[in-house]
């Protein structure tokens, strides 16, 4: 802190920008689930094929994580994020003009490629703009964007489909995203180039471990191997795959589960879908607050980051009990507990920003998100095949619950100490 000078708070304006972008990111992924029932009826899509279409996004999203991280390290946050926002929103808009399965799959491929740099960008922004003791709460705030738009807009989204059709939904959401991408490029700056930040705020960020890598390392496959061999990165990646499986179920198959297996009408499904998103938002916020509090209380990032995430994964595993619940109100309450836990697990992104080598934050985040989003490939396919083969979601719910328990074991037994690494794996 610079003596006698009051610190600016520009970092919170940046956090608001990131939150808005993340809200659009997940809104663009999830509108397919809202449109699924009338879309499948119009285009004659089977459950297994719908699972394939849901999954197609994550094929290219996962495959593009490493290139996206490398692009971020080379081009910087401002340009990379603006391009990502604009292109993914354009692909969303074009969904509204699809007339066959092949076109839908192609557009999902494009959406996955365009969205790939988003979370590596988020990780780099937090590492640059926030000291470590504020980073988990900052992650909690922007991660609410995953759920906030869906929590409070789900009834509106279902209403749009019911009254204007599923095609209008894609066009409206895509147009909003394109406008936001242009806005982002006009407003965002890194700490070194932001106009309204003063030296006191820069000193506060730097004193807490905030950083801005000036290096632009060339990509090397050997670097990937060194990073992935670190137990912190491997364990966090496995754990995040497991927690993300629950999120993928929520934003793809859950509305269909409510309307087909639980026989809720279309508009009512929209209101029931909203509650788990609300509790997930609460989990994100509370997880960040508790994590930062634990670090201040114990002085241990290992305890502060890992304990809440393990708790969250155990809460996700309660999805197993849905197979034994008949009452729909109790079902939604249990699902809300599970999604509360899933929200807590967003701390995985804070953990990875704490351990990533300073010169390779983009690449590390890309590796982490690659592993995380293999869940986006596997989960829709597994659920689609199980539902088509059995005519029921029972096996699908069991899959999500067991995977969550595996994630908890990964955080407990694999990750080890949470500490900044160098590229050779030694503590920084």
Summing up helix and strand content along with how strands pair, one would put the structural category as mainly alpha
Instruction: Tell me, rounded to a whole number, the average pLDDT.
Output: 84
Query: What is the tally of helical segments?
Result: 19
Q: Major beta sheet, specifics? A: none
Low-confidence stretches: none
End-to-end distance: 24 Å
Cα-atom radius of gyration: 21 Å
Q: Give helix and strand order, one letter per element, not per position.
A: HHHHHHHHHHHHHHHHHHH
Number of strands: 0
Would you mind describing this structure in some detail?
There is one protein chain. The chain has 428 residues and is mainly α. Helix content is 78%, strand content 0%. It is built from 19 helices and no strands. The chain has helices at residues 10-43, 47-63, 65-75, 77-95, 101-115, 118-129, 132-164, 166-187, 199-207, 221-228, 231-252, 254-261, 266-298, 301-316, 328-344, 347-355, 361-372, 374-390, 394-413. Helix 7 crosses helix 16 (347-355). The relative contact order is 0.16.
Concise structural overview:
This protein is an all-alpha fold. Helix content is 78%, strand content 0%. It contains 19 helices and no strands.
What attributes characterize this protein structure?
globular; 428 residues; 78% helix; 19 helices; mainly alpha; single chain
Write the layout of secondary structure elements.
Blueprint: H1 10-43, H2 47-63, H3 65-75, H4 77-95, H5 101-115, H6 118-129, H7 132-164, H8 166-187, H9 199-207, H10 221-228, H11 231-252, H12 254-261, H13 266-298, H14 301-316, H15 328-344, H16 347-355, H17 361-372, H18 374-390, H19 394-413
Helix pairs in contact: 1-4, 1-6, 1-7, 1-8, 2-5, 2-18, 3-4, 3-17, 4-5, 4-6, 4-8, 6-16, 6-17, 7-8, 7-13, 7-16, 11-16, 11-17, 11-18, 11-19, 12-13, 13-14, 13-15, 14-15, 14-16, 14-19, 18-19
């Amino acid at each position: 802190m610079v003596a006698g000078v009051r610190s600016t708070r520009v970092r919170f304006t940046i956090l608001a920008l990131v939150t808005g972008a993340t809200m659009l990111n997940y809104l663009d992924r999830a509108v397919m689930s809202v449109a699924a029932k009338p879309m499948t009826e119009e285009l004659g899509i089977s459950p297994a094929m719908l699972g394939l279409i849901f999954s197609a996004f994550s094929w290219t999203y996962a495959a593009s994580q490493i290139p996206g991280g490398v692009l971020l390290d080379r081009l910087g946050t401002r340009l990379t994020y603006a391009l990502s926002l604009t292109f993914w929103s354009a692909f969303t808009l074009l969904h509204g003009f699809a007339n066959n399965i092949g076109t839908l799959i192609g557009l999902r491929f494009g959406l996955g490629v365009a969205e790939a740099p988003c979370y590596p960008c988020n990780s780099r922004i937090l590492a640059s703009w926030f000291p470590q003791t504020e980073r988990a709460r900052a992650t909690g705030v922007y991660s609410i964007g995953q759920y906030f738009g869906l929590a409070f807009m789900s009834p509106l989204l279902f209403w749009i489909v019911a009254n204007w059709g599923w095609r209008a939904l894609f066009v409206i959401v895509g147009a909003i995203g394109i406008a936001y991408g242009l806005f982002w490029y006009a407003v965002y700056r890194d700490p070194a180039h932001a106009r309204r930040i003063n030296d006191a705020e820069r000193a506060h960020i730097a004193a807490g471990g905030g950083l801005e890598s000036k290096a632009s390392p060339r990509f090397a496959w050997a670097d990937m191997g060194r990073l992935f061999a670190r137990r912190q990165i491997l364990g966090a990646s496995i754990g995040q795959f497991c927690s993300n499986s629950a999120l993928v179920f929520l934003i793809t198959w859950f509305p269909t589960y409510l309307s087909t297996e639980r026989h809720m009408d279309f508009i009512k499904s929209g209101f029931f879908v909203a509650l788990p998103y609300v509790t997930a938002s609460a989990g994100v916020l509370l997880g960040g607050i508790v994590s930062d509090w634990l670090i201040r209380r114990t002085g241990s990032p290992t305890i502060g980051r890992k304990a809440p995430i393990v708790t969250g994964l155990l809460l996700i595993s309660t999805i197993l009990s849905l197979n034994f619940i008949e009452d729909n109100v109790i079902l939604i309450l249990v699902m809300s507990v599970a999604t509360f836990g899933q929200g807590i697990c967003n701390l995985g992104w804070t953990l990875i920003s704490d351990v990533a080598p300073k010169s390779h934050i983009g690449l590390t985040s890309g590796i982490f998100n690659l592993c995380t989003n293999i869940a986006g490939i596997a989960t829709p396919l597994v659920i689609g095949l199980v539902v088509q083969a059995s005519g029921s979601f029972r096996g699908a719910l069991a899959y999500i619950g067991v995977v969550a328990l595996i994630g908890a074991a990964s955080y407990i037994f694999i990750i080890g100490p949470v500490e900044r690494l160098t590229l050779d794996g030694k503590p920084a």
